[in-house]
Amino acid sequence: MLDARKRQVLFAIVQDYIQTAEPIGSRTIAKRHALGVSPATIRNEMADLEELGFLAQPHTSAGRIPSDRGYRFYVDAMEQLPTLTAVDAETVKRQLSGMLRGQQTMLDALARLVSSLTNYTSIVVGPQPHQARLQLMQAVPLDENRAVIMLVLDTGMVANEVLALPRGLDMYDLLVFCNYVNLNLAGTLLSKLKDMNFEAYAGQLRAGAQVLEQTMDSLIASLSRSDGDRVVLSGATNILNQPEFKDIAKLRAIMRVLDEHELVLRLVTSAPGAGASVSIGAENAVEALRDCSLITATYELSGGQTGHICVLGPTRMEYARVIALLNYVTKLVGRA
Amino acid sequence: MLDARKRQVLFAIVQDYIQTAEPIGSRTIAKRHALGVSPATIRNEMADLEELGFLAQPHTSAGRIPSDRGYRFYVDAMEQLPTLTAVDAETVKRQLSGMLRGQQTMLDALARLVSSLTNYTSIVVGPQPHQARLQLMQAVPLDENRAVIMLVLDTGMVANEVLALPRGLDMYDLLVFCNYVNLNLAGTLLSKLKDMNFEAYAGQLRAGAQVLEQTMDSLIASLSRSDGDRVVLSGATNILNQPEFKDIAKLRAIMRVLDEHELVLRLVTSAPGAGASVSIGAENAVEALRDCSLITATYELSGGQTGHICVLGPTRMEYARVIALLNYVTKLVGRA
DNA sequence: GTTAGCACTCGCCAGTGCTGAGTGCTAACA
DNA sequence: TGTTAGCACTCAGCACTGGCGAGTGCTAAC
Question: Tens digits of per-residue pLDDT, B47-66?
């Protein structure tokens, strides 16, 4: 679709612009990339590329910068996925092996790892409980009238809450209720539990029924949280380093999006499944991210639960490097 | 120390400047505050106040702005703590009653509440385990070779982790170990557990000893986390709205500080105990926060654990309102 | 098809002059 | 002695200007 030299020129501009963030002129290309032709020739090619929509010119006497379409072409044309530098791979491996412990902590550390390695903002979405089933409900008495109530899923996820026993409900009642739940509901899909009304179960416990039901609902909700709390952000500061966002208004618009975890969640989870998926500039549904690109990758834990890692940067992003990194990280995370 | 009129002038400037973020001139004061004197007289007072260090002048022909010392005087002089507007109080009460559930969620919601009400950045530090003791250790089998291990403290805090049974350690061994811990270590202070070497206990389990010990350490660490993970930030975006931070460099410096949760933790927890404590501009140890003020309040849960809520804003902060809010919030949180 | 030459465009920058807000000083007043 | 009106002065902000330089598009020659 583009002849060889046009591609060379386009790629040169994309690469240089990613590095410098300054519009690239014909002379610069002629000097830095040995295309074997003069600036004038390159100018002609550039004019063609602009007409085709791959380049844009900020103003008449400036060099060219890639358009969204230009970046898209560049990304699609990266035939084999570029590999990570050895040092990056090493860093990932080392850090990752140290962090495969508690859930929340891991998401956090993962986000931090990715953002520090890329110098972009990273977004990690925790695994969805998916097909999780209730394994066990348990109450642990703390003192005469307080107990911790815990729900354990077969995926190993745990939710817990402290319950102050209301008048008319004693520890024994609570344990009976636990037994009842374990006998009748062990193995039930989390999604089913969500729609369930526990009043029927707790009903026999007269006074405490409402409190118990509230507690159960809250525990189940916290396990199946499809909302903001599964989203972890890191390196938002890195946005400030990008010259394209020295304008406070733009910055604020982006930050505001990042603050809305529900929106971010939808954005990140909507990415198609396999491999790293790239969404460039105006391809993003959200207005405020028109100058940004998102690279999203999906990881799958051994239990079959899936989550997402996403990198947010300017459209002028180091696509190759980030894609390689995300592919590597998701692979490693999946293995653990 | 300051005669009545000087105080009036100073307060007028502080209040107006908090509202407008523009240097205040003598004429403005004469018009907006009925001091009964002409601008010329006010000018004389202002010159005196500047000499005394309560005011500063950005440049010769600008009005005056309060210095750190000016704010300090203003804050110290607020005799009785100003009360919250009824509508604010109502909002707090309503929101708060809905959120007193899961730990992490609550911190998050609390931070969000405070930042949305103040339009500043809020920092919430979760309660320290303090004098917590081990209540129970429990293992819940998930399948043949995976189990969730949970530690429950007498404060109701729970840490859990999935353990893949290594070769040579079976479910029975694990349960024995649990029993052993419960028999020998229940009631032990968390701080003691931290320094404990579980190899001795796990030693008899030959092969699995190391894995078990690692798991215990990680669980205990996550319970006693004195590091970053107890810190929850919200409304960092609000910083962008302050005209004093339209300069990207300053902004970045502040953001960088906020990213370092350990530093933030130290900053917030170092505030003296009772009531809301205010730290203005250069009073902050951290260089990057020289143009900021921190208002920190401590809450104490029924269990005796203490945590902190902190509001970060420009030195030109609505001190009265924020102090009132924090006092109210901490009181309400403490009750639950 | 390629290239050198050249006129042209336009952002950026430094310099200029104007305006308005606000001050400090002085002298007059109560 | 404290207060006030008047006035000269200062200085940021703004609009405007001209020069510079980077980079372009076009044309004509190779």
Answer: 999 999 999 999 988 999 99
